[in-house]
Amino acid sequence: MAPLAQTLALLAMAMATTAVTTVNVIPLDMAPDSFDDQYQGCGPAMKAALLTLSGSEFQQNKEFAEVWVKAAAKWQSRGPPVSPLSPDQATAIMAFTMTRTFNDAVRVVGRSRQLYQDNFHFKTLHFLLTDALATLRDAQKGQCRDAFLKVCNIRFETQRGDTVRFSQFMPVFPSKQIGECPSERLETVVKLHTCHGVEIQFFSEHREPAIVLIPPFETFDVTQYTQEGDKAQIRLQSTGTFSKYNCEWLGGNTTGDSWGEWGQP
After folding, report:
1. Rounded CA separation 148/171 (Å)
2. What domain count does the chain have?
């Protein structure tokens, strides 16, 4: 399976690929353990720190170093593109589509500042990916869009009226996915309206399928949750953003208290 397919399968809580019929229950809530920094007010300072930070992380995280080299070469091989992104931003998206351990870490290192500072050796990638999505969103004039996600043998634990976030950078699809879950397996279809997710397939390792990437700080209202037999449907409506952290690598106080900042739609 290609790395992007692994990302979609494993990081989006995955299409079931074995004969096991156990339904996995996944909380769909505000994801309090997620690292959700938006770097508001500290973009230039973060960029100034990247050379030193990335050098340190390449030493501490060999997988990240190898993926970054591979992603940079892949991006350069496509020739000079017309793109609003810098080479580093584009490489960050490419690298994201090549690794799944990054999102594994994003889901949990927000448990504490210390855990982020000491154990999250993807700080460079997190900043550049967040910055790239913001740049693409600006280039697309803040366009909102519908997107879809279908998973098998996954039951999201939520209810109508809840406010939720994905706990990671979530790949979803701009159109309904073709195909059904195998018989006797729960099929959950999520239809969502996102205002911070952007299309990234031009910057992906493989340009198919088309992918919309949603940042972990976008918030959604659950407007529908129904289940009939082995079919479940969820509808999510974007309501803005929420971040527990802001500019954490620089001390977390660039724009005031970094904990609990609600953003705009």
Report:
1. 10
2. 1
Q: Which domain holds residue 138?
A: 3-262
CATH code for the domain in which residue 128 is found:
3.90.176.10
**HEC string for the chain:** CCHHHHHHHHHCCCCCCCCCCCCEEEECCCCCCCCCCCCCCCHHHHHHHHHHHHHHHHHHCHHHHHHHHHHHHHHHHCCCCCCCCCHHHHHHHHHHCCCCHHHHHHCCHHHCHHHHHHHCCCHHHHHHHHHHHHHHHHHCCCCCEEEEEEEECEEEECCCCCEECCCCCEEEECCCCCCCCCCCCCEEEEEEEECCCEECHHHCCCCCCCCEEECCCEEEEEEEEEEECCEEEEEEEEEEEEECCCCHHHCCCCCCCCCCEECCC
Tokens in use for 265? Answer: 């739609």
The first and second tokens of residue 14, run together, are 């995955």
Report pLDDT digits (tens) over 89-107. Answer: 999 999 999 999 999 999 9
**226 closest CA partner among 239, 235, 236:** 235
Using CA atoms, how far residue 218 sits from 118, 185, 191, in Å, is 26, 30, 15
pTM score: 0.88
User: What is the tens place of the pLDDT at every residue in 217-235?
Assistant: 999 999 999 999 888 999 9
